[in-house]
Design brief:
Number of strands: 9
Oligomer: single chain
Distance between the termini: 35 Å
Strand content: 15-25%
CATH architecture of the domain at 2-139 and 171-195 and 261-269: 3-Layer(aba) Sandwich
Largest sheet: 7 strands, parallel
Radius of gyration: 19 Å
Length: about 280
């Protein structure tokens, strides 16, 4: 039995689709979700749905009952992740799961990104738990940048603070395929996988591709980190989230979002989704 936490989230749904595509029977998959009522589509496929709220540890034990493997998709609540992840790890250990798989961040042990701190601390908790585990150190999602495309087209400018830093991003579907691959491979005591796109680009190159596909004349404007954060706040983002994005761009300028190992493509058995293809799909939507 494979338990996928956060199963109604964007990544969780894709992981379940990939597990099914790999031949895992629906009856062998548990969708662990905060609100089971929102998982009716999964239940209709024959997948078991169980309540699992990271903030309510009493729900986690029953959710993991009988599980061989648990995929811990990192919480979206930045700043609150560590106690939530600790609750999941403790419940997985108590349930006697054979493997815990965790979605971490690229080079979590050395990354300059502010986002990396909670991932480092979670990885330490997993190591201390004694559970056989796999750390999926996911790089940047291409969708993180593509979300800015509509505003860039409207205003004629794509803003950022990544300089000429090269970004080896991949799509959520690529990372979901990696999680499904690990969850269906033989269990190892410890695996650490640095996962990123096969190819990399700068934000200037992203804008060039955007203009090529749309015929627009968007320009890339690189800003100091502080000014980028202020611009994001001015666009309506909460200050903490704006600061997080600006910090990530500044990290990209230092190479924090680049990896040339090719591990992700090798793991999923195909090239990762190129930027041009991901952009084309986003524009079509």
């Amino acid at each position: 039995m494979i338990v996928v936490t956060g199963a109604t989230g964007q990544l969780g749904q894709l992981v379940i689709s990939q597990l099914l595509a790999r031949g895992v029977p629906p009856a062998a998959i548990v969708a662990a979700v905060r609100k089971p009522a929102k998982a009716s589509a999964l239940a209709a496929q024959g997948i078991t749905v169980r309540e699992a709220d990271y903030t309510r540890p009493d729900t986690l034990g029953p959710a993991f009952a009988g599980a061989e493997r648990v995929l811990l998709i990192s919480s979206s609540e930045v700043g609150q992740r560590l106690p939530q992840h600790r609750a999941v790890i403790d419940a997985a250990r108590a349930a006697g799961v054979a493997q815990l798989v965790y979605t971490s961040i690229l080079r979590a042990d050395s990354s300059p990104l502010g986002l990396a701190q909670e991932h480092r601390e979670t990885e330490a908790l997993i190591a201390a738990s004694g559970l056989p585990h796999a750390l999926l150190r996911n790089g940047w999602y291409t969708e993180n940048y593509l979300a800015s495309v509509p505003a860039a087209r409207q205003h004629g400018v794509f803003i950022g603070a990544a300089g000429e830093g090269r970004i080896a991003s991949a799509t959520r579907a690529d990372y979901a395929a990696a999680a499904a691959a690990v969850l269906t491979q033989p269990i190892a005591a410890k695996r650490v996988l640095e996962l990123a796109g096969d190819t990399a680009y700068t934000l200037s190159e992203l804008v060039v591709e955007l203009n090529r596909q749309t015929g627009a004349s968007v320009r890339y404007q690189d800003l100091p980190q502080k000014d980028f954060a202020a611009a994001l706040e001015g666009a309506g983002l909460p200050p903490a989230f704006a600061g997080l994005l600006a910090d990530s761009d500044a990290g990209a300028a230092q190479g924090a979002l680049f990896d040339g190992s090719g591990t992700l493509g090798a793991l999923i058995g195909r090239p990762t989704t190129p930027l041009a293809e991901a952009l084309q799909q986003a524009l079509a939507v």
